[in-house]
Amino acid sequence: MINALGAPQSVLVLGATSDIAKATVERFADAGRLQRVILAGRSSEALDAEVERVRRLGVPEVQTHDFEARDRAGHEQVVAGAFAAGEVDVVLVSFGVLPDEARVRVDPLAAAEIVDINYTAVVTTLLSSANHLRVQGHGVIVVLSSAAGVRGRASNALYGSTKAGVDTLACGLGDALRGTGVSVVVIRPGFVRTRMTAGLRPPPLAVEPREVADAIAKNLVGGSRTVWVPPAMAWVMGALAVMPRAVFRRLPI
Ligand SMILES: NC(=O)c1ccc[n+]([C@@H]2O[C@H](COP(=O)([O-])OP(=O)(O)OC[C@H]3O[C@@H](n4cnc5c(N)ncnc54)[C@H](OP(=O)(O)O)[C@@H]3O)[C@@H](O)[C@H]2O)c1
């Protein structure tokens, strides 16, 4: 169970090698109660290294599950496997890709694959997790959305559209689960310095993964909600959302 201070005992991470996920698991471990971490990801040296790292953080039980986002039929088995071995307090949905927008725009099938990873796989894993948590009677699903989903931009329209879908589903599902003991926390970061954004110029308000992890840890109790990281992104995106389109499209973003 998650205690009143927001410290969980068990976490299922979907996208275990994500820099944001790694910082979040570390933050949970720092809280001192973490007993079991289930790392779901594609088999790789990075996943093996993450298993060792989590063990070194002092977590007694670390399990792995093969997770391929494009294998939608396999997702139920991954989620069910995690719940079969014990209670899961937090499901962290942290996988995703940031495509080369120019490349996928001229290759519709490549674009559809990005949708499969960033959106369809979130639909299947989110709904499956919600079903299992409802039966369990408690728990939190943390979903990595993005400020990019708030308004379509010329520079990342496809990525933004997947995040808009994720955000809409996660917010609505969180409200539908009210009263069940299960909540959905939607995280909307701006630019985070991770492997995903390596080589891109960080804009103002760029944050480190540990700042996203802190925001997640601080918002685990208190029900379904939306969390901007940093908080000032809420004001920036609020202003951009209502800006006339003729002006918006001229912004260098
Ligand atoms: N970084 C940002 O600025 C930012 C801002 C807003 C939201 N977000 C969101 O936050 C989440 C985490 O991002 P991050 O910055 O931590 O990125 P990251 O370090 O690049 O991690 C991405 C994760 O997605 C996994 N993944 C990619 N394709 C997959 C597939 N086909 N099957 C299974 N796993 C797959 C990767 O696994 P492998 O190691 O196997 O590739 C990795 O674990 C994403 O949803 C991202 O969209 C990021």
Order of helices and strands: EHEHEHEHHEHEHEHH
Give me the CATH architecture, please: 3-Layer(aba) Sandwich
Give the quaternary arrangement of the chains: single chain
Lateral arrangement of strands in the main beta sheet: 3-2-1-4-5-6-7
Tell me the number of structural domains. Answer: 1
Helix/strand/pairing category: alpha/beta
Number of helices: 9
Q: Fraction of residues in helices?
A: 40-55%
Task: Summarize the helices and strands and which ones pair or pack.
Blueprint: E1 10-14, H1 19-30, E2 36-41, H2 45-56, E3 61-66, H3 75-84, E4 90-93, H4 101-105, H5 108-136, E5 139-144, H6 157-176, E6 182-189, H7 209-218, E7 225-229, H8 233-242, H9 245-248
Parallel strand pairs: 1-2, 1-4, 2-3, 4-5, 5-6, 6-7
Bound molecules: NADP nicotinamide-adenine-dinucleotide phosphate.
NADP nicotinamide-adenine-dinucleotide phosphate (NAP) binds at residues 15, 17-20, 41-42, 44, 46, 67-70, 94-97, 117, 144, 146, 189, 191-192, 194-197.
